[in-house]
Amino acid sequence: MSYQIELRHFRYFLAVAEDLHFRKAAERLFISQPGLSRQIKQMEDDLGIQLFVRHNRKVELTPAGLYLKNELTRNLKKLDNILDYAKLLQEGKQGRLEFGYVGSAMQDIIPNLLIQFKKEHPNAQFGLKEMDNQKQINNLLSHDIDVGFVRLDQVPRGLAIKPILKESFCLVLPKDHFINSSSFKSLEQLKDEPFILFDPSYSPSYYEKIMQIFNEHNFTPIVSHNTIHAASIYKLVENGFGLSIVPKSLQKGYDMNVKFIELNNIPQKTTLSVVWDKNNRNPILASLLEKINS
């Protein structure tokens, strides 16, 4: 079967599928509404598929239309990445990598990695976005990022994970707290204090490990606040809203009125790992992974 479908038809279809409104989609595409309607009708006729159910006041996707929307969104993103990379080659650049990361990875790991990587790839470009663990996984699966730095023990099938830093936890207290490194003996000394923890959605496995620490010290913490940002935790601790437990690497990069006590006598450690899509064909990703593995 021969289709007279062009790339613009897919873009037109996706605009209507996202807005579910021909006029709004036409305005976004800078074409007339009748013209857009004709293009969609032509696409449906050529494919022999009804993509939309049209009502007087609204438009709905058919099951076939919904399937096509999801698949085209995913595959056109890949096409955009291919074309963007071709442009970088044309401009004499070596490529672009999109990073996702949890905040602690930006203290030392990522800056040091990029410094070393840029020595061999001086024209490489990077996009850097801080995001929680689950969002990184979602963005890897949707090809919005190339590599993530997460605190997870497992990842979905199709993704690869490599531990790169295993570290201790630290107790975080206000600077004027009566407990210091000399007087600290056990977390049980602080069982009546409220705690500010990373939100369970940040990483369920990480949160479970933190709760395991408390469990092994024979108490359940009073959790006064949850957040996903270290700066928010430190600001709350600084102002007397509670104490916290964070990875050791998060001691750096913040100028807050707090102090840290390393919990180096407990068995629990936290691991920072790099994660990527095994099927990602971005040429420069392989070079980055070689640098990480070296």
Automatic annotation (TrEMBL):
Tell me which UniProt keywords the record has, alphabetically: DNA-binding, Transcription, Transcription regulation
Q: Name the domain of life this protein comes from.
A: Bacteria
Report what the protein is called: LysR family transcriptional regulator
Q: What is a single molecular function from GO for this protein?
A: DNA binding
Q: Which GO terms describe its cellular component?
A: protein-DNA complex
Query: Record's family?
Result: Belongs to the LysR transcriptional regulatory family.
One Pfam match:
HTH_1
Start and end residues of each HTH lysR-type domain: 5-62
Answer whether the UniProt record assigns the keyword Transmembrane helix to this protein. Answer: no
Q: TM segments?
A: none
